[in-house]
């Protein structure tokens, strides 16, 4: 199992007792505060664009060009949201498409990858190591170099402009299989032996023993998959042309203010931005602990 | 059926659904990305053209420009991202309270959860040369407005800056976990020898983190090599090609000029270049690490 790393005290506190060295303590204090200030400054900088997006989405077109720019809300208005949601484009449908595709990919992708990870970790079969090595080695390749081949392949399979083309390629994630395998390798064999003696079948071993014990990894991967699928842009941009099937990321490029922004369009563009940012942020807040742990399993155990 | 046979059968049963999709959507496209550089398509039918696409792309000035831009971007971004994430992460580990550490990790991760499409549009507003925030702040200190995205000198660095602001989350989380996982005995020994603060960070923490640094550097490089979304929304490759990246050129060949063959050749270049960079990084780190 994954243990939450604890910090040994020695690592944190550094008492320096001997006299005559207090200058060093002073220097450390100052140095520590400077790095703390830098940390807070960077946190501020990295949150600022999001704050700016939310704030601007509640402004009127003219206000968004005001100088000096208003750093907080005066006379908030929902005009931009009304404009986006009542546009002639099916914005709500796009949001629903994104939700449907992301949830489907997350649920079925996890099941497929958890089954494969289980086989790689706990079953012996011919070719296992070669297959696993092949899966691993594709993790190092940039996904973008598969864009054109996958585009032609799905074109020849007549999959363009269907939900399938957004769902199927996302299901087989080498990263997920790798992570789940690493996790399942650490489960004690006695558990499985005992259950087998008690008469559990193979499916039950997987479903009732292996999966529940892998929950932290599955939660992390689920969050990760949902966010990545929701935010995916290039692939649906290439393969979806039907207005009704577009996910929100692609759909918004047609809205006013997205690809080219006129003077008064910023609040509208920001409102679209907020609408597509909200679901991943909610998911992240719900599962943040798993998410953080999941990201580190792959890096530290690999 | 004996036990081993049954084990084997169930192994295949569990792995097959994944394997089928993996073959179709990952492995086949990977193999195709090599083959397709030698094909041109006419009405869904491939025609073998040998080296023609590769010749064309290698003689295209824009290709070399895009390679230069991509490598410049990757160099600036990866170096700055690893250094900044490392600095922030080490500072985070100095907090004794686990809740504070996790809160900070989440806080730094959150911006990377927001879609790049949304982020890119906010930044176009922030970079705007008339009423954008950056130019306003500069005007307060008396600096002339800069046309950040419209000037070939500043456009690519602006994209680097934008991606640094949003893209450090993963690196920070991995580095924090790595620092907390280091054996404490080493730090005890260093304390006895009188190492403190900066010395400890430079001579103990960072050298011990080399494997994590390599991991973050390689994954960051792979992501940065594929820079597309911010170019698509902010600059369209301009001004005068100063932000044309290999990924954006690939996309343009295929979907604007409808030359799938050229796009495949450019895509293959992206693949090979990324692999080459990853190998260079591995080599370089191996020569640095002395265990």
UniProtKB/TrEMBL annotation, chain A:
InterPro entries noted in UniProt: MetI-like (IPR000515), MetI-like_sf (IPR035906)
GO biological process, one term: transmembrane transport
Entry similarity comment: Belongs to the binding-protein-dependent transport system permease family.
Limits of the ABC transmembrane type-1 domain: 95-287
Gene3D superfamilies: MetI-like
GO CC aspect terms: plasma membrane
Pfam families: BPD_transp_1 (PF00528)
Primary subcellular site in the record, as a coarse category: membrane
Keywords recorded for this protein, A-Z: Cell membrane, Membrane, Transmembrane, Transmembrane helix, Transport
Coiled coil: none
PROSITE patterns: ABC_TM1 (PS50928)
Protein's cellular compartments: Cell membrane
UniProt key word Cell cycle: no
Bilayer-spanning residue ranges: 30-52, 94-118, 130-157, 163-184, 205-227, 267-287
Membrane topology of the entry: Multi-pass membrane protein
Species assigned in the record: Caldilineaceae bacterium SB0664_bin_27
Protein name: Carbohydrate ABC transporter permease
UniProtKB/TrEMBL annotation, chain B:
GO CC aspect terms: plasma membrane
Subcellular location: Cell membrane
Keyword Transmembrane: yes
Keyword Cell membrane among record annotations: yes
Pfam families the UniProt entry points to: BPD_transp_1 (PF00528)
Keywords, comma-separated and alphabetical: Cell membrane, Membrane, Transmembrane, Transmembrane helix, Transport
Biological process, per Gene Ontology: transmembrane transport
Sequence similarity: Belongs to the binding-protein-dependent transport system permease family.
Protein name per its UniProtKB record: Sugar ABC transporter permease
Gene source species: Caldilineaceae bacterium SB0664_bin_27
The organism's taxonomic lineage, starting at the top: Bacteria, Bacillati, Chloroflexota, Caldilineae, Caldilineales
């Amino acid at each position: 199992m994954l243990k939450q790393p604890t910090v040994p005290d020695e690592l944190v506190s550094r008492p320096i007792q001997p006299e005559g060295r207090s200058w060093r303590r002073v220097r450390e204090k100052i140095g520590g505060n400077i790095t703390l200030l830098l940390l807070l400054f960077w946190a501020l900088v990295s949150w600022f664009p999001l704050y700016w997006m939310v704030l601007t989405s509640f402004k009127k077109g003219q206000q968004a060009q005001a100088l000096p720019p208003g750093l907080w809300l005066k006379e908030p208005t929902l005009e931009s949201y009304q404009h986006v949601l009542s546009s002639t484009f099916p914005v709500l449908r796009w949001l629903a498409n994104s939700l449907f595709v992301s949830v489907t990919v997350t649920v079925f992708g996890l099941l497929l990858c958890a089954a494969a990870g289980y086989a790689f970790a706990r079953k012996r079969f011919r070719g296992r190591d070669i297959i696993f090595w092949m899966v691993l080695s594709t993790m190092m390749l940039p996904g973008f170099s598969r864009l054109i081949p996958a585009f032609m392949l799905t074109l020849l399979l007549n999959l363009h402009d269907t939900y399938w083309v957004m769902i199927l390629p996302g299901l087989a994630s080498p990263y997920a299989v790798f992570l789940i395998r690493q996790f399942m390798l650490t489960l004690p064999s006695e558990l499985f032996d005992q259950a087998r003696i008690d008469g559990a079948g193979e499916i039950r071993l997987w479903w009732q023993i292996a999966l529940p014990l892998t929950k932290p990894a599955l939660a992390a991967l689920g969050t990760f998959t949902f966010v990545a699928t929701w935010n995916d842009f290039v692939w649906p941009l290439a393969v979806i042309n039907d207005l009704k099937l577009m996910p929100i990321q692609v759909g918004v490029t047609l809205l006013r203010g997205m690809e080219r922004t006129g003077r008064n369009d910023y609040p509208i563009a920001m409102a679209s931005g907020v609408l597509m940012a909200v679901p991943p942020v909610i998911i992240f807040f719900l599962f943040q602990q798993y998410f953080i742990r999941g990201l580190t399993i792959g890096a530290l155990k690999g | 059926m004996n036990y081993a046979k049954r084990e084997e059968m169930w192994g295949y049963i569990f792995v097959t659904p994944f394997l089928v999709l993996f073959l179709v959507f990952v492995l086949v496209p990977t193999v195709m990305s090599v083959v397709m550089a030698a094909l041109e398509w006419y009405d869904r039918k491939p025609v073998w053209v040998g080296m023609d696409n590769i010749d064309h792309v290698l003689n295209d000035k824009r290709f070399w420009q895009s390679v230069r831009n991509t490598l410049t971007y990757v160099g600036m971004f990866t170096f700055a991202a690893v250094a900044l994430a490392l600095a922030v992460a080490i500072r985070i580990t100095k907090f004794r309270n686990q809740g504070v550490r996790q809160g900070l990790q989440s806080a730094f991760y959150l911006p990377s959860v927001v879609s790049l499409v949304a982020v890119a549009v906010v930044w176009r507003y922030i970079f705007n040369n008339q009423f954008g925030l950056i130019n306003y702040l500069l005007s307060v200190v008396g600096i002339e407005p800069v046309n950040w995205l419209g000037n070939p000198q500043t456009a690519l660095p602006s994209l680097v800056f934008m991606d640094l602001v949003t893209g450090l989350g993963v690196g920070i989380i991995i580095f924090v976990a790595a620092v907390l996982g280091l054996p404490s005995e080493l730090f005890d020994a260093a304390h006895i020898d009188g190492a403190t603060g900066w010395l400890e960070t430079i001579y103990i923490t960072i050298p011990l983190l080399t494997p994590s640094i390599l991991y973050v550097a390689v994954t960051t490089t792979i992501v940065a090599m594929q820079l597309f979304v911010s170019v698509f929304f902010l600059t369209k490759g301009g001004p005068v090609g100063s932000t044309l990246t290999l990924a954006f050129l690939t996309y343009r060949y295929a979907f604007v000029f409808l030359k799938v063959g050229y796009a495949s050749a450019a895509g293959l270049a992206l693949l090979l270049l990324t692999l080459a960079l990853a190998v260079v990084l591995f080599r370089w780190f191996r020569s640095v690490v002395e265990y």
